Each structure stands twice: as C-alpha cells, then as structure tokens.
C-alpha cells in the first residue's frame, strides 16, 4: 500500500477508472475484465466507484465487505447489498466464507451473484462440497500433484498446514507445522495419516525456517538452500 497500489488505489478513484478503461479497450469481448475491491468508510463513495467501473465496461465486481483498516471485524453485508442494488453487472461477495452454509447465508443477505473464498478454501479445499474439514483424499491428491511437479517445499508444506488444521489436534499441529524437509513431512503423512507417498518424485530437498507458526494463521518463511523464491499463496479464488 505504501507504493500506492493495491487497496491504496481506493483513494484515487479517477486513476482506477482510467486504468480500467485502458484495460477494457485493449481486451475484446468475450474476454472478461473484473475488479476486486474493499469498501470505503463512506459506502456512497464505494457505490459511485462501482457505477463508474460498470460504465467503463467491467464484466463483474468482487467486493470484500471490509474497509482497508478492518481485518477480523464482521463483514458489512449492508454495504455489499447497496452495491448489488446499484449496478446491473454481477457482484461477487467476499468475506468470512468458511463453509457452504456461509455461502448461502451471504447470498441471502446481499443477493450477490456468487461468492469468493480465500482462507476458508485454503483450510478446506472441499468446502464447496459441503464437507466441514479437508478429507484425506484431498490431501492425497495434493501430495500426488506435488510429487509429479517441481513445487518448492515452502508451497507444499504451506498448503498442508492449512488443509490439516481441522484434521490434526493442536499437539499434532505443533509438530507438523515445524517440519522442515520433504522427507520429514512425507514420513509424517505416511505414518500418521496413511497417505501414500509416490516412490519417484520431482520434489527438491530444501530446508525452510519458519519465523512464526500459529494455529490457522499465515506465517513467514525463508528458503535457505535454493536460489528460487516464490510468493506465498495468500488468496485462492473459487466461485460457486
């Protein structure tokens, strides 16, 4: 935000409008152009911005029902509903989606055309199927996929930490979250959860240090034995 991009752009709605106009003019239909945004303290400003974006030819909007400064506060469903009622393009609602019932509830309150999940779908990739926690079959699919690719340990372990949050006890998580190599993680999955580990893999044996690991929280990490770095996945966008 200090660089003037991301949510900081909300303070410059004219620039957003000009950017979207240029993008829309450069991308022909049927390709879509969308905008994901947080709300402003003054919801009237958010409504006007969304109207301007609709006039620029945006295909749909995704609205996170919190302001830039809000983190764990309840989602402002009234604000999302005001935006839905003010534009004719589809509005995707985002915020506090942790179960399939949350999807239906947010739709009922806002009349949105769809929902977007981030942390909820990280913790349970099968959430939209109505399951309350990640099934082991999903963990197995992730392991199989990663063992056939060049995925870095950081990404591999990061997603497993999220997926197993409701599967493992707190004591078990305190052990699993601090594992630092592919072999350690794969041995744990095999011995504790009966996950099958393919014998021939393309995974790289790199060592990772985590500066902080908390239940259900994001954590910073640094890859030590590789020159390749990759950004953590902080958002996963799925529509239902």
Automatic annotation (TrEMBL):
GO terms for molecular function: tRNA dihydrouridine synthase activity. InterPro entries: Aldolase_TIM, DUS-like_FMN-bd. Residues 2-182 form the DUS-like FMN-binding domain. PANTHER family: TRNA-DIHYDROURIDINE SYNTHASE, TRNA-DIHYDROURIDINE(20A_20B) SYNTHASE [NAD(P)+]-LIKE. This is DUS-like FMN-binding domain-containing protein. It comes from Nezara viridula.
